[in-house]
C-alpha cells in the first residue's frame, strides 16, 4: 500500500515536536525558531573567506623571511636597496585582489546553482535557501534531491535513499515513516517528506565535513610540485645563507653596513617569492574566465585536473542529449486496444508526482488520465529499469472500484524474456537511435513492489520516444578526439539505442551491453579499453567502471546530471555536473556547467592547459634565479680566503628580477597556451632550472673574478659589480628568450622591452646612480658580453641535450 496516508504515524521518540504533515510549520513557529537560533546556519562556501584570503597571501614562510630582511635593509642601507620589499607588498596586494575577484565570481555562480529544498509551511510548499531551514521544518524530497539536514521520515511513497557517501554502502535504503534520514544522503527513487531534527552544525554531514559535497578533494600536481620545490629551496637556503653571513661579517674585514647589504643581496634572490603568487593568480583568472561562461569551478585545482584527463565518461541523457523527449509512436502489441492503452499510459503518468523525462513525455502525449483508484505505486529506479502502479480499474463509473491491475513501464529487454518476438521490433527501433519503453501487465495478484513482478508479464504496447541531440555535442566529441582524450559513453539505456545516438554524433567504436561485462576489475578495464559505448549500465557499475579505468592508470572525468551518476561522479578524478541536474550530482561534482552546455568543457580543458603550461614556464624562470643565487653564494663562501665580497647589492638583483622574471612572468602566466598537459611537473621544471642556473652562476662569477683582476683603486668594487651584473642580465634575458618560445609578436616585444629597460638604466645618469650601475672602460664590458654570449650558446646546446637525454 502507499505510505502517504501513514504520514501522521511519526516516531515521536526522535523529534521533540511533531510537525503536522498537512500544514508543516506556521509562519509564527518559523519566526520563533529563528529567534531562538534554531536555523541551518552552516555556511555554504564556494571559496575562502576574505580573512582567509588575506591571511594566506600575507602570512607565508617566504614573506616572513623577506619581511625580516626588508626591515634590516631599511635600517642600514639606502632606500634603493630595499626595493625588493615594496615588490613583495605589490605582489601580495595583487594576489589578494585577484583571489577576491575569483571569490566574487565563485560566490555569485554558487548562488545561481544553490540547492533550494522544498519546505511545507502554512500548508503550502515553497522553495527556500538551505540556510532558511529551521528546526522541525517539513521538507519534501524526490528523486535527485539531496538531504540537507538530519531528520525523521514523515511521508514515504516508495522512498529509497542512497547513503553511500556517508556509510560506503552502495545499496539504496528503503525508508518508512519514523525512519532516520541523514544529511549528505540523496533520494534515488520515490518521494516523501521528513521533519528536520538536527540543523546547522549539529547535522551529521556538518560534523563529518563542512559540506557533504566535500568528501573528495582534487589533487593538484602543480600545487604539490611547487610545495616540494619550495621545501628543497628552504633546505638549500638555510645553510647557504648562514655561510654567506659568516663570510661577509666575520672573515671579511669590511664596513659593517656594506657587508650586511651584500649579505642580504645574496639571500633575497634565493627566495622564489613570486612563484606561489603567480600560480594563485593563474588559477584565479581561470575561475573568472570560466565564470563568464557560466561554469562553476567548485574546487580550483579542478581546472588543472580536467586538462590532465585522458578519458571522459559521458552519460548520454542530459549530456549528449537534451533533457526533454518526445513520444513519436505507440505500437500496440497483440490484440490490445489502443484507446485502452492510452488510458493506462495517462493513468501511469498521473500516478507519479515526480515524473522523470520519459514519463513527462508520456504525460504530454497522453494527458487524459482515466479516473481509476490508485492503490500502490513504484517509482522508477535506475537499478530496476522500470516503474509501475496498481489501479482498481472501475467497471461501472468514475470512482467505482473494480479489478485490481498492476502495470509496469520500463526497459523491454529487462521485462521480457530474451526470446520474446517483441524484442526484435525493439532492436530495429533502437538501431535508429530511438528509445523504446514497454508497457506490460503484471501477473494477477502480484504486488507492484515485489521483485518478481517483472517476471511473466504480458506485453501490451511499445512506447517510442525520440531524444533531442545537443547541437554542440558532435563538435565537443570531435575536440576530445583531436586532443587524444578518449570518450566513453556510459548509459543505463539500451546499448543499441545508445550506440545509434553516439554514431549520429560521429563517435565510432564498439557497442557493449554492460550486463555482459566481467566483474573482475582488470578484465573490466580491458573490456572498457576495447569498447566505446556501454548500455544497460547500473549506477554501481558506473562506479566500478570509473575505478577499473583508474586502476589502469587512466585519469578519468565523468559527466552526468542524474542520481544514477552520483557514485561515479564522486569517484572520478574530475566530476562534471549539469546545472539543471539533480542536487546530488551538483553537490559531489567539482565542476558544474550552469548553462547545461556540454560545449563548455573544451573551454575548461583549454583553461587548464593554459595554467599548467604557463606555470611550468614561469617556474623555470624563478628557479633558474634560485639556483644561480644559491650557487653564487656558495662560490663566494668557498673562495673566502681570497677576501671576495658578494658581487651584488639588493638593488641590482631587484632590477634583474623585475626585468627578467617579475614583469615577463606576469604576462607569460596569463597568456594563451594550448600545449597538452604533461605529468612530472617537478622533473620537467628542474631539468631546465638546474643546468640554466649553474651556467648563469659560473659565467657571472667568472666575469666577477676577471673584473677583480682588471680593476683596482677607489670604485673598483662598483665597477666589478656592474660587469658581473651585465653578464648575469644577458644570460637571464637569454633564458627568458628561450622560455618565451614559440615566438609571437607580443613575446618578441616583451623580451625586447625588458632588454631596452636595462639599456635605459645604463645610459640615464640618475638611473645609473640609483641602481649603482656604471660600466667603466671598454675592455670589461666587452669581456662580460663575450662571457654571456658564450654561456648562452652553451645553454642552447645544454637544454637541447637535456630534452633528448631526460624527456618529460
Automatic annotation (TrEMBL):
Keyword hit for Disulfide bond: no
Record keywords, A-Z: Hydrolase, Membrane, Translocase, Transmembrane, Transmembrane helix
Main location: membrane
Chain ranges of the P-type ATPase A domain: 118-211
Transmembrane stretches, start-end: 58-77, 83-100, 232-251, 271-290, 618-640, 652-673, 685-707, 719-739, 746-767, 779-799
Entries under InterPro entries matching the protein: ATPase_P-typ_cyto_dom_N, ATPase_P-typ_P_site, ATPase_P-typ_TM_dom_sf, ATPase_P-typ_transduc_dom_A_sf, ATPase_P-type_domA, HAD-like_sf, HAD_sf, P_typ_ATPase
Pfam family, one: E1-E2_ATPase
Localization, UniProt: Cell membrane
Topological type in the membrane: Multi-pass membrane protein
Transmembrane as UniProt keyword: yes
Domain of life: Bacteria
A GO term, aspect molecular function: ATP binding
EC annotation from Swiss-Prot or TrEMBL: 3.6.3.-
Any one GO cellular component localisation term in the record: plasma membrane
Protein name from the UniProt record: Cation-transporting ATPase E
Origin organism lineage: Bacteria, Bacillati, Actinomycetota, Actinomycetes, Kitasatosporales
